[in-house]
Amino acid sequence: MLSSVNIDYFILLMALLLIIGVLTTKFSTRLGVPALVLFLVVGMVMGSDGLGFIPFNNPYLAQLIGIIALVVILFEGGLQTKWSSVKAVAKPSLSLATIGVLLTTIVVAVAAKLIFEVSWLEGFLFGAIVGSTDAAAIFAVLKGQNIKSKLSSTLEAESGTNDPMAVFLTLSFIQLLTIDDSSYLMLIGSFFWQMGAGLALGYGLGLLASYAINKINLDSSGLYPIFALAFALLTYSLNDLIGASGLLAVYVAALVIGNRDLTYKHSIFRFNEGFAWMMQILMFIILGLLVFPAQLLSFDIIVKGFLLALILIFVARPVAVFLTTPRMGFSTREKIFLSWAGLKGAVPIVLATFPMTMGVENSQLFFNVVFFVVLTSALIQGSTISYFAEKLGLNGPEKVEPPHTLELVSIGKANAEIIEFAVNENMKVTGQALKDLELPSDVLISAIIRNGDLVTPHGETVIKPGDILYILVAKQTIKALKRLMNETKDEEN
């Protein structure tokens, strides 16, 4: 039984880890290193083979925390993704998420077989574990970057939908390694079931969650974000129980929820953004604790792991990108960028715990090599994505980010909401004075943020590109208002 001293010690360590994790994000920006690398290093330093503050060697617990964290991160990423952006790149994203993962697996399998002198099945298991682009890494690295929308949307959609393929391949090769009479046909059928059921149930549960959030009048506005997150966990668990892809279902459900009009939408988004950061910090630190630096930094792992990482980065990923995206509207420079941006992160490390928990021979070798490959990918690719985009001329226009210094609210008793609206130069309202806008009678533009300054609106105020409008509107008028505000100058002509 835990003593009060142990409990207090544990709480103190949790507080210190979260504080260190948050401060680490500041250093990562200055150093140009992805935050996930520093989180992993913090875990390694604090663990059994480092300073010894947190003795930890439980792959089952690490796997559980990792999966829960991935659910939260995918849910937050899906909420923030516009359906119009995903729809435009659905074909290349799904091609990369399925055939691309398979091609990456094959190339890495051949390399692992030759480098580590393992069996072919073990080589394919190596490839399957590191075959997917990681959603946690992609969402974190691309956030705030002004990379062309087509490219960032492709990477986000790919990373949000390629986990089923990676999980399917990993579990299939583990099954083939551990069970003598495994059926290839059953494994293929399982894949289509996972994808199909995951898509269908994710979409249905997303609609259900949106309806419930809008129709159920909760006593406190703080309950709505928790209600939404509960649906994310429910979506994963229900899909997992029937053998479907829970991670894919969560991402699809989040897409549905995030692209519908919601009560307390701002609060739901902000809560999940903060909670996703907390889970990301916790997950990478826990995964770092699971590593023993003395094993990871052995000469054999460093040399062979680095060679495998180079083959993954410079051969496997480019082969996957160039072979799966022909005639899909990408230039050679854009394909080079997509090849470089195939980041590895939490998913491969979490998948590397499966051989450990399922009794696969050489499982510790798998984990150490995968961990080293992820570190190498994050350091080399993650820290240079912005540089590559700039050098390849693939930066888009500067993104207009709402400052969120005003707390947006749903005024439940008054059946009204304050919503934010970002203006760009192509919109019909740009250049018009407020008095000339044909707004419904129950709409009031209450504040404008321009270049970081608050502008008090009046009839003569002219709307300019980059403005953030805060609009008080009755709930029944929101859809009509959005149609009016989103009209473009092309539509006018």
From TrEMBL:
Name of protein: Potassium transporter CPA
Matching Gene3D superfamilies: 1.20.1530.20, Regulator of K+ conductance, C-terminal domain
Domain of life: Bacteria
CC terms in the record's Gene Ontology section: plasma membrane
Entry's transmembrane regions: 6-24, 31-54, 60-81, 93-112, 124-142, 191-214, 221-238, 244-262, 274-295, 301-324, 336-354, 366-389
Compartments, record wording: Cell membrane
GO MF annotations in UniProt: antiporter activity; monoatomic cation transmembrane transporter activity
Entry coiled-coil feature ranges: none
Keyword Cytoplasm belongs to the record: no
Membrane topology: Multi-pass membrane protein
Domain RCK C-terminal: 406-487
Keywords: Antiport, Cell membrane, Ion transport, Membrane, Transmembrane, Transmembrane helix, Transport
Keyword presence, Transport: yes
Primary subcellular site in the record, as a coarse category: membrane
